[in-house]
Amino acid sequence: MAFNPADNIQDLQYFGEFGGVNPSISDSSTYTFLSAKTMFDTFEGNADGCYLYSRHSTPSNLYLGEALAAMEGTETANVAASGMGAITPTILQFCQAGDHVVSSRTIYGGTYAFLKNFAPRMDIHTSFVDITKLDVVEAAITKNTKVLYCESVSNPLLEVADIKGLAKIAKKYNLQLLVDNTFSPLNISPAKLGADVVLHSLTKFINGSSDTMGGVVCGTQELIDTLRNVNDGASMLLGASMDSMRAASIMKNLRTLHIRIKQHSKNALYLAERFQKEKIKTVYPGLKSHPGHELFKSMMNEEYGYGGMLTLDVGSLDKANELMELMQERNLGYLAVSLGFYKTLFSAPGSSTSSEIPEQEQAEMGLSDGLIRFSIGLDNDIERTFNMMRECMVEVGVLKA
Ligand SMILES: *Cc1c(COP(=O)(O)O)cnc(C)c1O
User: Fold this and answer.
1) Mean pLDDT of the chain
2) Distances from the Cα of 178 to the Cαs of 34, 182, 271, 297, 337, in angstroms?
3) Nearest to 51 by CA among 24, 87, 26, 68
4) I need a labelling partner for 40 at 20 to 30 A (CA). Which of 24, 328, 330, 365 fits?
5) What are phi and psi of 268, to 5 degrees?
6) Is residue 305 within a helix (H) or strand (E), and if so which, with residue range?
7) 182: Cβ below 6 Å to ligand 1?
8) Ligand 1 centroid from CA 214, angstroms
9) Measured in angstroms, how far is the CA atom of residue 82 from the centroid of ligand 1?
10) Inter-CA distances, 345 with 184, 213, 332, Å
11) 204 lines ligand 1 (CB under 6 A)
């Protein structure tokens, strides 16, 4: 039977303590023991099913982690307080002083800043490359390289990574392939394509209601045990643990992820096709004009579409700002940096989410001033939305009437 991430989530059955249809939330930071010996064993990680302290693990966090592991098809997973709280410990767990990372140059601004500015303090250095060119990726590998890092669909340029091709390189040089799948949950299943570790910011599509931060590392049991080790586990010791209340609320939202992703994808494809016809520079992996279109198609879980993210280039930052302000005024969406909300969100990444990337590098990677990144919402009538957006574009002079 074919792998289907949403079916895998659906097949998980959790009951509450009193037969509730939702699992009970464990509202405690610490747990009692009848025997002191069991407490010691639990601390050492040798007492299955026992809880000690909520930074280590909680029932609610384990439920959510197992559901996300089922979604990504990995052995297990560890949830964290934010996406960065999942990403940074994972990189640090694999890299020691002197080690080297090869990373895509088009990645989330925070991850970029961590690798570029923070990790060097620990003598961990990164080469940033065009991830769509496998020969360039391979050429950047040194004898100290430990990690190959990319996003399935990159932020904000929506470049598509050839995960199978990268996995082959990772195998050849004995590297760990880490893939941030935040932009394409359900759409792409990186572990099924050969990624060793799949990371997410749950803050975005997976939670989907822009009320919570969260992150997850999906991987082997061995990796997750290592990250959680009380003596030298980066997730355990850096302390970005998720709160149980949040884990429970994300778990409930995860149950509707497949419906939401289908609607995000349907709406984004519609708008991308219409705006491209209007001769606006449109980037969306679902368009044949996208250089990664065929690649995405070859990797995707088809029924979930090409995702909810698209970019439009309206020529200049001034025009972009004027247009975004007008669209917000007309209630077409919000001028906000995040993504994956029921409502369309838009921002100009050059001056916001990717502002950590120096201007010169932004230009080199094709991140232009007039670029607007859209996270398309769950709008019921997307043709109506298109007409209203088009009207805004006419008013600010991006399109003719
Ligand atoms: C938001 C985001 C992150 C960071 O997640 P936080 O939850 O904000 O810490 C990482 N990667 C991508 C692609 C993101 O969009």
Assistant:
1) 95
2) 41, 12, 31, 21, 24
3) 26
4) 24
5) -65, -40
6) none
7) yes
8) 9
9) 8
10) 16, 17, 9
11) yes
In single-letter form, the type of residue at position 342 comes to Y
Q: Report the pLDDT averaged over residues 71-96.
A: 98
* 286-310 residues labelled b (16+ CB within 10 A) or e (exposed): bbeebebbebbeebbbeebbbbbbb
Q: What's the token pair of residue 250?
A: 């994300």
Domains and CATH numbers, the chain: 5-254 (3.40.640.10), 258-396 (3.90.1150.10)
Q: Is 73 in the pocket of ligand 1 (CB under 6 A)?
A: no
CA of 83 to the centre of ligand 1 (A): 5
CA trace torsion 80, 83, 88, 93 (10° rounding): 50
Atom of ligand 1 nearest to the CA of 107: 13
Assess whether the previous peptide bond of 89 is cis (omega < 30° from 0): no
Q: Indicate the pLDDT class of residue 394, thresholds 50, 70 and 90.
A: very high
Question: Of the ranges 35-44, 50-59, 383-392, which is most confident?
Answer: 383-392
- Candidates 184, 152, 154; CA nearest to 165 is 152
Instruction: Name the residue of 87, 153, 155 whose CB sits within 8 Å of the most ligand 1 atoms, as the mutation to test its pocket.
Output: 155
Q: Which residue has the higher pLDDT, 68 or 351?
A: 68
pTM exceeding 0.70: yes
Residue 333 Cβ inside 6 Å of ligand 1? The answer reads no
| Rounded to 5°, angle at Cα 399 from 395 and 401 | 70
Residue 121: how many other CB atoms lie within 10 Å: 8
Structure tokens at 136: 């360039």
- Look at residue 45 in the predicted model and tell me its pLDDT: 73
Residue-wise over 180-215: b if at least 16 C-beta within 10 A, else e? Answer: bbbbbbbbbbbbbbbbbbbbbbbbbbbbbebebbbb
When computed from its CA atoms, the radius of gyration of the chain, rounded to whole angstroms, is: 21
Give the tens place of pLDDT for each residue, 168-196. 999 999 999 999 999 999 999 999 999 99
Identify the three-state secondary structure at position 294: helix
